From TrEMBL:
Keyword entries, A-Z: Membrane, Transmembrane, Transmembrane helix
Taxonomic superkingdom: Bacteria
Protein name in the entry: Integrase catalytic domain-containing protein
Organism of origin: Pseudomonas rubra
Matches recorded under SUPFAM superfamilies: Ribonuclease H-like (SSF53098)
Coiled coil ranges: none
Length: 326
């Protein structure tokens, strides 16, 4: 294990909260002050977790920073409060305005704190004069990076692959090799760093990755409107509410018929039910027949491409189109 000297003014984590050691009570207990509540308590040494920046690096490869020595308590408490506020903001618990109020900063200063914020360094990354981590900078040792890389190859494959499974493997291997266990967010960052296409390939296979991220050669040569249309369904960005209680009910669906040659919307259908044959039929009817006011777009469609629909829709359209008079 890596040795850490427990001393006053040492930044630690107690019950998931950043704290500072006030004094050493005994060999097995210390008094700490929680940053968020500013309450003091006596805890067992075994209940304390040390920030990565405090771990001895004599036998580790890579760059580490020890920046907690000779830092006044006032600065540590302020940095701890800001760390918690930024963490809540990044987790979506509070808005940026609330985070700015908690950190007592304006927007530009708050963004500077975001650039300096580091989960690996904890509250110490927000000390005054401490530069933020540069983009792409790696703070883990080569051994831990190798463990993460091997865990990704071993566990992140197939549709059932998750970030947590990879982190569980990393945690087990680091514990086995007596290495510090990196956080879940660090492992997620390493996985996402592979790129969207590679992450998709590992989870869904090469063919799916090509279909989703590969280049699509060729193009459709069209000469006139109504030659080729696309039909798709999507949820509308609004929520219907009960007319009496005003309680939210659901979001309506809209089916659009789009002409590929002109990119004009030929017709649409708004429904309270999920996409169905009825949705497609009504949208095509709206596209083919005259419409009120100044929307003078209509006509019989030659080819249809449907998205998010069942094969039976295509059968229905084929049968219906054969009955339309020329």
């Amino acid at each position: 294990m890596h040795d850490v000297e427990i001393r006053p003014n040492l930044n630690v984590v107690v019950m998931g909260e950043p704290a500072v050691v006030v004094k050493v009570v005994s060999v097995a207990q210390v008094e700490v002050k929680i940053f968020s509540s500013r309450k003091s308590m006596i805890v067992d040494v075994g209940d304390i977790k040390f920030l990565p920046s405090l771990i001895s690096t004599d036998n580790l490869e890579g760059d580490y920073q020890v920046i907690d020595e000779d830092v006044p308590d006032e600065i540590k408490i302020k940095a701890g409060e800001r760390y918690l506020a930024i963490q809540r903001y990044l987790n979506g618990e509070i808005t940026i305005n609330q985070a700015m109020s908690l950190t007592n900063t304006k927007k530009s200063a708050f963004y500077n704190l975001l650039n300096k914020f580091s989960e690996e360094l904890g509250a110490s990354s927000l000390y005054p004069g401490v530069p933020g981590r540069e983009a792409g900078q790696i703070l883990l040792s080569a051994e831990i990076e190798e463990v993460i890389s091997n865990a990704i190859k071993k566990k992140y494959k197939g549709p059932a692959a998750t970030y947590v499974k990879v982190w569980d493997e990393v945690s087990a291997q680091c514990t086995k090799q007596d290495l510090p266990v990196p956080s879940l967010s660090t492992v997620v960052t390493r996985i996402k760093g592979l790129g969207k296409r590679e992450v998709h390939r590992l989870k869904y296979g090469t063919e799916s990755a090509i279909q989703n991220y590969g280049a699509k050669p060729g193009k459709i040569n069209l000469t006139h409107p109504l030659e080729w249309v696309q039909i798709d369904h999507t949820l509308v960005d609004c929520i219907l509410v009960d007319e009496e209680t005003r309680k939210p009910l659901f979001r309506p669906w809209v089916t659009l018929v789009i002409d590929v040659h002109t990119r004009v919307i030929l017709g649409y259908y708004v429904a309270f039910h999920a996409p169905s044959t009825l949705s497609v039929a009504c949208a095509i009817t709206h596209a083919a027949l005259p419409k009120k006011n100044t929307w003078r777009i209509l006509g019989v469609i030659t080819w249809c491409i449907l998205f998010m629909v069942f094969q039976k829709y295509c059968t229905w359209i084929t049968q219906g189109s054969s009955k339309v008079p020329s």
